[in-house]
Amino acid sequence: MPKTIELKVPDLGGSHDVPVIEILVQVGDTITKEQSLVTLESDKATMDVPASDGGKVTQVKVKIGQEVNPGDILAVIEVADTASAESSPGKPAGKEDASPSAPAPAKPATQGVPEQKTDPVQAPVKPSPAPQAAAGTGRKADIECKVVVLGSGPGGYSAAFRSADLGMDTVLVERYETLGGVCLNVGCIPSKALLHAAAVIEEAGAMAAHGITFGAPKIDLDKLRDFKVKVVGKLTGGLASMGKQRKVKVVTGTGMFVSPNEMEVQGKDGTQLIRFEHAIIAAGSQSVKLPSFPWDDERIIDSTGALELRDVPKKLLVVGGGIIGLEMATVYAALGSEVTVVELADQLMPGADLDLVKPLQARIAKRYKGIHLKTKVVEAKATKKGIDVTFEGESIPETKTFDRVLVSVGRSPNGGRIGADKAGVAVSDRGFIAVDRQMRTNVPHIHAIGDLVGQPMLAHKAVHEAHVAAEAIAGEKSFFDARVVPSVAYTDPEIAWVGVTEREAKEKGLKVGVGKFPWAASGRAIGIDRTEGFTKLIFDEETHRIVGAGIVGVHAGDLISELALAIEMGAEASDIAKTIHPHPTLGESVGMAAEVYEGTITDLYIPKKKPSAT
Amino acid sequence: MADVKEARVPDIGNFDGVPVIEVLVKAGDRVEKDQSLVTLESDKATMEVPAPFAGTVREVKVKVGDEVAEGAVIAMIEADGEAKADQKPAEPIKAEAAKQAPAATSVPARAAEPAKAEPAAKKSSGGAQEVRVPDIGNFDGVPVIEVLVKVGDRVEKDQALLTLESDKATMEVPAPFAGTVKEVKVKVGDEVGKDAVIAVIEADGDAGEATTPAPQAAEPKAEAKAAAPSAASASQSDTKPAENASTSAGGPRTPPVSFDASTIMPDHAPYASPAVRAFARELGVEIGQVQGTGRGGRIQREDVQAWVKHALASGAKPGASGAVATGSGLNLLPWPKVDFAKFGEIEEKPLSRIQKISGANLARNWAMIPHVTQHEDADITELEAFRKKLGEENKDLKVTPLVFQIKAVVAALKKYPTFNASLDVTGEKLTLKKYFHIGIAVDTPDGLVVPVIRDADKKGLLELAAELGELSKKAREKKLGPADMSGGCFSISSLGGIGGTSFTPIVNAPEVAILGVSKAQMKPVWNGKEFAPRLMLPLSLSYDHRVIDGALAARFASFLASQLGDIRRLLL
Fold first, then answer.
1. What is the pTM of this model?
2. In B, residues 523-552, which contact A (CB 8 Å cutoff)?
3. What's the gap in Å between the CA of B304 and the closest CA on chain A?
4. Which tens digits make up the pLDDT trace of A264-288?
5. Where are the beta strands (DSSP E) in A94-134?
6. Which option is the CATH number for B264-338: 3.30.70.260, 2.40.37.10, 1.20.120.10, 4.10.320.10?
7. How do B55-60 and B30-31 pair as beta strands?
8. Which of A42, A594, B345, B352 is deepest in the core (most CB within 10 A)?
9. Residues whose CB falls within 8 Å of the CB of residue B67, separated by 6 or more in sequence, listed in order
10. What's the ipTM?
């Protein structure tokens, strides 16, 4: 059996998509090592690509005009070490290493698609074949545009606004009456308004210990809800007017692709057909609705329902101890609910380092009815009295009947609900859409951003992706090159982290060192009587560059940005330690933590440890 | 009995896809031997293809716009009366051996190429193959600083086998294919050169599965090696996937974004801030390839710029996109777009092919060669007197001043051999030539062409005059072949017949200097006692300052002037 060898395009010195202008061999030719196979012509020079081996050509894999990249296969040869070189011409050979840049025609998208997980670290990938796109409808379009953006959440509106600012005629499709998506309407923003209320209640109550008593708060739920609605209204109204100023056309209705260049929008007043040159899918995600709950009962709620603030249930069960569940627990506990939390994993907020979660857990353990880890709900039955819940696991809650049950076990992407297959866009079975670093799907003129391209499902990630997608469509060389996406839980205390966690470092055997500054030594934290927090920085041991950070404590979310910047900039421990932080602030703890790592701290006494340099 | 034979395109010097710009005959025409059948226009010149024999055109097989290559049939011609009996198609007329086509020189790809594997010395029928050090760019004796595999290891294709450290950089030698390491032939500290055997790897046996669809009808062309760039690059832009093209084509081309330690840890993440990363993207530079010069190896904006500069200078590794005209690559401003029609009547006229090609060459030469122009006046009073006399004696010949200039240049090149040289693509090596082929810039209606007079040192003045006359005639009649225009060592551009006091000619790369000649004028020259009227010829010598320094150029120019000032010296 003769050996087959693939002859590939060598390193082209940074050139990409270099056209083949001539093919110098053909199937059946016997070539010698160093013989020229093809001529490539970059814009600077033509070059012949020599054969790295001699043998008989069985396949020529490129054609004139095709653009190739380093590593692409040019030809397959049989090494003439056996006599059978005559047989089976054209027998394909070689183990394709799925070089994603190969512009091979009709190559199915084998790009990985992240799986969904509540863990904000990207999950392993799974291929999904590209579907066959539908043919165009041939109908006259109601609207023709350069760019259509599906979904008006933070990703969607940012994509649309950026597209418009880059001079492209843009249509924004949103199924709800107001712009802003989950984040503005039923997510980040309203929850922060309510969390503010909760924080004030907590702080006012806490001052009783220091001589100032306000008395029990009187809660006018309608007024509080109005406040929340006004906050949301201000932002969504602002979006609408900014869209108008930019001349972005907003089409209200549910958008579905019907072909690679057409989208049908089903609105109140009928159906509109949009013909577009480019699309940006920003259709987001929705709460996972576990089927074991009686969803037709209005006492079973997801985060959207919780934010409606219909009442303050006496007994609230929160299923899922992730960020969303614990934020809503914080609100309802402050308003007076008796809160029980069950979480399947062995810690709250899986994904964050355990030490960050501990101060939160310690605080809420005193305030909530119970926190039950490694426990799950096996059955929930609606009865007149309430929702009867059956648990299973290591820690079974005392309470079995609840006035409301908040199910917050994660979000699933909406990739499967937009007719993506009609456009030929590959969607994984979990609903994710695979994209490249320019947020391009397997269909080159359709981009996707935000929750439905993968974890973490965070608005600030989506916004950056949105700009990349719009700029890429406008022909700019924008790529998503951010290295870290900070995560924040707006619980009380807040937990924020960015970059490498201690957990990940341990799992992967990374050589890191930690500088940790306890807020018990922070004058500011003492002054506000919130000393449970700490700031920890994680450094690469060899270079002393910061690779991760975690903060727990009030306003942790406001402190983490400095560390995201530090990681992106490749700051060293002493860059941070030698930056003067204002005193007395909570932010000062960041500089102090770096000093701890450097061994230069004077606000703590740390007995001599190993020298920090390696 | 009359014989219908094919008239084919002769050897046109390794060009392919040369467009037919004019068809000069039609079916039924009688043609004489050597009568032009069609006009072709290569990037060097236009040329006419002559009939190989006399006869009657039966069929014309090409039309204007067709692209032809050597051997293509142009027409079927029924040869006159008693044509030779042999059945072979008539021999195409061969142009003079034309091998060098500078525009299409194949530039070897960059240094660190993937290792070139060679079949092992007929070992087992299995796939044990030797892995050799790839071309590492004219280095020899590069020390191995690390061996990354051992016998028995399974390696993946492109997995690093060992690390070499030249004085320029460290580099890893990748496995050219997956397999099992059978033998490691080097150890740390060994010095290796190109093609040294590193290891023997038994390639995976089951490499036979096809995962790519069979390529569509490739159009292999077995013979020609060089190519006319323009046609191909035109089709290149056409084949770029149209935005709305096939929906199932091309999966995502860059890996999806992931957020974990692999994008952050210093041993994986290039040490560059977000702005510098974006800047590199803008220039199409893979940031991972850039060597940082900041503290701790931080990649700074300047490092990215330096990388691009180096890439441009070395020619073989340009940025992914457009030439100077688009503004990218050199990072220039885009070409101004003006709607001229707003300001008055206009007419658009495409540049001729020669203009386009020579324009691109001139732009490259101007941008890449640091030019300096040295001006000098030569006293040619006596020379002119002699030339006129020579002209009278040889009425059938046109003895132009250029002939003397060629002679003088040859003498100067002999004295200053650095001027008869070429710099290689890396800018590190000079090739000195022992022959004296002089290019003469000739203005034709289609544009500038530079025919070359070969071995000008071996030819007498009259011989040169005769050859010059012939070349200019050929140029005007578009009969210059690539062979007539290649191999030059030094060019002369004479505008003396038109006017001017001096100009700055552009060096004709890969030559390193060019002589510009302006119009001779009678000038008062101080001869020590008085001003005497002398005929002064302005010379402008542009040179590549990377190769030639100013003092040398001044010497060359003044030597040239002294040669022209006293032609007896040409005998020396």
1. 0.53
2. none
3. 12
4. 999 998 999 999 999 999 999 999 9
5. 112-114, 125-127
6. 4.10.320.10
7. antiparallel
8. A594
9. B16, B17, B18, B19, B20, B231
10. 0.70
